Amino acid sequence: MLDLTLAVAHHLLIFGVFGVLFGEFVAVQRGMSPAVVARIASIDLWYGLLAGLILIVGFSRAIFAAKGWTYYSHNVFFWAKIAAFAAIGLLSVPPTLVFIRWRRAGITPVDSEVAGVRRYLNAELALFALLPAFAAAMARGYGSVT
Length: 146
Prior knowledge:
Layout lengths: L1 H26 L6 H31 L3 H6 L2 H30 L5 H18 L1 H10 L7
């Protein structure tokens, strides 16, 4: 039952963080009002919270669930998935800092800064597509280096 509970929680959190990321992508546009900027900054807090929960639940799943740490720790696709998730996390830092700055300033952001943030969000979304591919390969036993 623990394996199922952790798997469901992990998947729901992944869908949640993707929804938040996509919501930011849709909301970040030229001519945003300070109210929209504040809303995006609030949404971005959920992005960080969900990402942290994904790590906790994901590693709990890898350690305590059915296949166990040995299975995951010796799998190339597991580490590729972790690397992709880490890259997404690193790419999320500059937009978060910009959202905080915009929110504190209470301004309508200039178009060039909006375009810069959108480039980061595009990169995050592109890398996000790798996560289910790596997960599917890993779940089917590909990538084992034992």
